[in-house]
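Hi Prof. W.,

I finally got the Isopentenyl-diphosphate delta-isomerase prediction working! I wasn't sure whether to trim anything, so I left the full sequence exactly as given:
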Amino acid sequence: MNVPVNISAQTQSRKADHIRICLEEDVQFRQTTNGFEKYRFTHCCLPEIDCDEINLSQTFLGKTLNAPLLISSMTGGTEQAGIINLRLAQVAQDYKIAMGVGSQRVAVEKPQVIDTFAIRKHAPDALLFANLGAVQLNYKYGLDQCLQIVDMLEADALILHLNPLQECIQPRGDKNFKGLLDKINILCSKLTVPVIAKEVGNGISQQMAQKLIAAGVKVIDVAGAGGTSWAKVEGERAETVLQRCLGRTFADWGLPTAECINSIRAIAPDIPLIASGGLRDGLDVAKAIALGANIAGLAMPFLRAAADSEAAVYDLASVLVAEITTVLFCTGNTTLASLQSSGSLQRLE
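And this is what came out:
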């Protein structure tokens, strides 16, 4: 596929802008939360278990993870992004957790930046997810490009991210979402790896999850509201008054993550489910698992740590594991499955 040089340059510049804005500006939701504050674990003062026997392992898409954690899709395509992905990949390998990369469209448009995504050599055993905006299926991308993206990462699955609000506000955004469900259906039937449908921070509704599952999507990543607002991010990048106004107006648009988990799990009890969107610590992760998610994804905490240093990423992973372990210990559970079935997470009135 021949892509004009100016388009690939714009895509690469956008990648750099996103990292800078997320690290330097206040782009968190103002009022909408992830919804987990509405829940509290019942404390068990006598757990009758040995903390050292707690097992956080979880099998997901055929691979066993040592903890139910996903380093959510963030970046790639620039020198800084390459350093960030390298640090994250090393932690994913050593802690045996899952990792996704940012949209690989830039690597298709500009093959010189493929190395910023090529992390399999640093994470040979990790569960890795490739990533592309679903809307690109309406902009000359198809099976060949998706296979190229999967191959460059040697990925275990392909994330198709859904971001209509972001595209509405983004300068020169791609806003033709017409007929995408049928194209996703065709792609799912032909691709050699499972397809994950993921929002980017505004949530997936129960109705939309049903349609995506019927189209052949194998995993849902709810990516709900409550964390980074991509409306605010794109508002910071605005080139016009209109874009700036849209970024402000829709800064709190979306479905809270906890609501997405509950509603989707109610109609799809067996679909592999990823909880992401505003998760900031291991307590959020544990609540997401207790509500019915299989694994939980965090982006901003890992981005900030990876932008700091390799040591900071390892420290973050260690803290997250310790926090999840503490929840299990203080609720009297030794496994994630027992946490889900224990009824120890209560909704506050």
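Residues 35-347 form a domain with the TIM Barrel fold (CATH 3.20.20.70). Does that look reasonable to you?

Thanks,
D.
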